[in-house]
Amino acid sequence: xxxxxxxxxxxxxxxxxxxxELRSDGRLTALFGASGSGKTSLVNVIGGLVRPQAGHxxxxxxxxxxxxxxxxxxxxxxxxxYVFQEARLFPHLSVRQNLLFGHWFSKASDSNGVxxxxxxxxxxxxxxxxxxPGALSGGEKQRVAIGRALLANPRLLLxxxxxxxxxxxxxxxxxxxIERLRDESRIPIVYVSHSITEVARLATTVAxxxxxxxxxxxxxxxxxxxxxxxxxxxxxxxxxxxxxEVVSFDREFxxxxxxxxxxxxxxxxxxFEPGRKLRIRILASDVLVSIGPLSGIxxxxxxxxxVTEIGAIPESGTSAVDLRIxxxxxxxxARLTRKSVAALGLAVGSPVxxxxxxxxxxxP
Amino acid sequence: xxxxxxxxxxxxxxTAVRLSLLVATTxxxxxxxxxxxxxxxxxxxxxWGRSLLDAAVHLPLILPPVVTGYLLLIWxxxxxxxxxxxxxxxxxxxxxxxTGAALASAVMGFPLMVRAMRLSIEAVDRKLEDAAGTxxxxxxxxxxxxxxxxxxxxxxxGMILSFAKAMGEFGATITxxxxxxxxxxxxxxxxxxxxxxxGGDAGAMRLTLISIAIxxxxxxxxxxxxxxxxxxxxxx
Lengths: 364, 236
Hints:
The complex is a heterodimer. Chain A is 23% helix and 36% strand. By secondary structure, chain A is α+β, with helices and mostly antiparallel strands.
């Protein structure tokens, strides 16, 4: 079966060269990288805003662009929803007219599309219908823009840093809607971001971009813990994503006990139902390594494992090096100084105890 | 003093007022599609000779109106290359007719119309057009439901400017179609005629007041329309 998204394009824009290959079946594929790495250019190629000089873009096996076969489907016939960084609502139309804009054009082609009432409910924007875009807050505008794209009945949804122009409070307001969209709609999403927290929380697949190329693409937990990728400019700080299940809540100390394949973990948040599945993230710099079990230490979480990989030392000679530790099948990344690695005599296969200083919960 | 307007103006003067309104309205409406097309070409087009077209459009603004009128007479007169063609194929006569006055007014107002429209088209955010495209609107629909409504204030302003210019156009009109009462004698020509005869001061003053009233009304109408449109297109 062909992948949902299959891209191989080359395009030169001034001195910038986009040369990207990407195949993904993810429900939410994040394009992650520093600004200028080509994320937006690639999304514009998928959406039909940019016509690539060479290559192909296939969606569910159908060619949208294939320069060899002379195929270029114009953007208005692709049925690809696009949520822009700045909402781009039509200022002369009401919220209702904005929402139904694409709906009206897609009506003829497909009758079993998304319903207005369902979108209003999903995004919580029912009370805004009569307003003009000028009278909306940034967060409201962005939700209307998402609704407008959904109502056009798209086969794929592109989101280009939809949260970057919003403050923290508005981001927190919108993230749950995007999660619901990822989990409840059947529409695959391509999500551009340079925020590691957004990617860790939302993405099922990550494509790491740098200098106009896709350096690597794979499941989120795998990409975020890769050592060689951490050395790339614009790459996220190495961290580990671990699937966890809530076991119990300790009322006296306000701690939640989680069970993971790596072992039990305690986190300082108490608003979870027992049995709930969570995704947690541990930064490499929040992990200490010891060769024996530690006592008399304030950190609560200690996991046992074996060193499986020691990261390459960059030529510029920074003092830090990343280790990968296999803890019962979960990969934990730890950032140590080279001096510590030498002092402890660590090598691949060494049994270690990883002391976790802090755990962040990515899926509340 | 306060008699009804009908008694206030002589029948000839009334004819001049009506003719002026007819000529100005015709000039404005007839140049609208051309003005819009040229404004779009200049705002969006990338083609060889774009600056040449830009200069040509602005010519009536900088040439002496008499020169423009004389060129019109040479090309659009009964024996002129274009005038002959229009007469042979469509039976249209422009020289010494009110239609010729409308043509002269339209040509003189064209740069003003194009300028206002072009500025407003350039101000339309192309990103909104891209957004409309991704929502399934083909280029024709994008133009009709996004671009056009967004540059409506400029289009209105261009129409009003063209109308106002046509109401006041004198030099090119009198050169091209002369000053024939009831056919080509518009308000400015009528005022000019009054000033050339003894005892014409009262008539000239009456028509001057009418001229001022119409101009102010047009300006006021454009202000009101611009404000209505601006309220609809409140900044996003």
